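re: that complex we talked abt at group meeting.

here r the seqs, copy pasted straight from the sheet so there may be weird spacing, ignore it
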Amino acid sequence: MSPWTAAQPGDPASAVDTPALVLDLDAFERNLQRMAQALHGTGVRLRAHAKSHKCPEIARRQVALGAVGICCQKVSEAAVFVAAGIDDVLVTNEVVGDAKLQRLMDLARRARIGVLADHPAQVRALAAAARAAAATLDVYVEVNVGANRCGVPPGADAVELARLVAASAPLRFAGLQCYHGPAQHLRPPAQRAAAIADAVAAARTTRAAIEACGIPVPHVTGGGTGSFQHERDSGVFDEIQAGSYVFMDRDYADNERAAGAPAFEHALFVRTTVMSRPSATRAMVDAGLKASSVDSGLPVVWQRPELRYLKAADEHGTLDTPAGDTPALGDALLLVPGHCDPTVNLYDELVCVRGGTVEALWPIAARGALL
Amino acid sequence: MSPWTAAQPGDPASAVDTPALVLDLDAFERNLQRMAQALHGTGVRLRAHAKSHKCPEIARRQVALGAVGICCQKVSEAAVFVAAGIDDVLVTNEVVGDAKLQRLMDLARRARIGVLADHPAQVRALAAAARAAAATLDVYVEVNVGANRCGVPPGADAVELARLVAASAPLRFAGLQCYHGPAQHLRPPAQRAAAIADAVAAARTTRAAIEACGIPVPHVTGGGTGSFQHERDSGVFDEIQAGSYVFMDRDYADNERAAGAPAFEHALFVRTTVMSRPSATRAMVDAGLKASSVDSGLPVVWQRPELRYLKAADEHGTLDTPAGDTPALGDALLLVPGHCDPTVNLYDELVCVRGGTVEALWPIAARGALL
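got the structure back, here u go
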């Protein structure tokens, strides 16, 4: 990692070295409030997705505003958050392999831990590991509600797996994971609504089929920043897993906003400097693909629509500019990343700014936690 | 970062937790030897590009085999390598801003440091910072030889900038940076040869024009893994900046190999586990886009051409498989990353294996060094 940080608390925001990952604290706090308000009084709880931020300081603020806990994708991420005092963590993923299962059980002795399953062999391995460790944990059956990623099909297969979990003490059958990832990024609101209507129907019939066997289904969990109001209003889901809403990114902003959906703001930026001005229509910035992930498309330049980020190399970004000298060599710009999650994963800290001053550096403690 | 590592020295390679970045030491060492042999006796030296590996253990082995030193893209990367004992480091980039210039001068008092310039304002700022710090350093004029990224045009503009550097003590005019990035990835050898022939012509005329002013041009440096034999044989370049040859990646392997070019081998792999097997033709692995960068396309499954890596989500990879149970839940696979540089930047260590055993963990000490 860099032997020094991009800034220190108290520095002027204009002096933050680049590239740096900057969090606009006012916008961030408004985003937290908007999500809390959107769920207030609905009986639907927030389990904030921490894979987006990997930052205990943020998780603590989400819990303080009512989140039941967090979810994350990896056992090693969960370990970072449990160590930071988050006591309810769902690993929204299947976990396979003895080493990982032992780590998971270590966590389950210290916090409420959940995990997903979509195959009987996983359930048997989880139960054996839990028994050996004298631990218990929540197991959710993952249902494929349209993402075609992991998950058993809705209906009979899910019932069978739920029965197995319920019969596999000390595991607790905690309910259904019904997340539809691709639906988050459908641009027209009607398309997102239709995809989630299908997911809700699959969740509803699966839940009913399990309950018909006399097995309670404590939770149906899922939903993301792009769709959560549909899961919230479904009467089936009781938990939302949104993560990106704290930051927003270019990809989510490319969604057309549904009527009544909260207007989350861009709060996360890559600060960058023009380090070469080789022609009147080309400016080179010091933020390339190691500074802003390009898997969901290129970043855009914040509030400078006349500047177009054309191309990312490892450490160079090429901007197309109107003919002239603006931006000048040495000018700083803010980029809105294409995709917040993998961009955050490139940095060791968030430079938190408010009112033109660096207020804090927040460690991205689970950065690189892949195991 | 993860609170634990994927393996320990002495572990069987088959027990490495996933996802992990695995280096096949035998293949890696053969790649180092092949490059050393390709340059042996030519009078052209290697300045290995450390942005690819960010790993002092690798830089030391490159220097031991004859590399004059390394190059890298960032001042903070240079600091990591100087701290690790590499005493000749060229930052192959323009460096702008007082904070960065001061850091660069700190390094220039401890090691031989070089940097690029493509604008008079950069040269003036470098000279002022060097004088203030009582430091000296090598400054190379970057020439745009076809990449259309940074760099002054060949010819008169380059001459003018070289004059300014040469007149700006304590800066040393060290020569020309003439790197053609896009040429590295042209698939047909004839296209790479033609692009580099143009770059060589631009470098030759620019060098001659500067020398005609009585200014010696100590070095012409550039070239990469895809093209270096052309720069080597040009009679103009005396230094090669290849980096990816130590690892290779899917993108470089997609190049058709030129006659006589060294057959660099894949030495870098992302080890991954099948953690869900939701259908007879779909296997989900635990390595997504936070485990293998997708900017240059998707990874491929090593020596398993029947398995196709279709799609990367943050923490999931979707494999298309022939109908059946292979690979099975829990099976480990090796992926060849699409692009080695940003993939390495996602990990904290290389798990080095030989003969089925983990021989060492090498810290990727400059991972995330963006400043």
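couple things i noticed - Residues 42-248 of chain B form a domain with the TIM Barrel fold (CATH 3.20.20.10). Chain B is about 30% helix and 25% strand.
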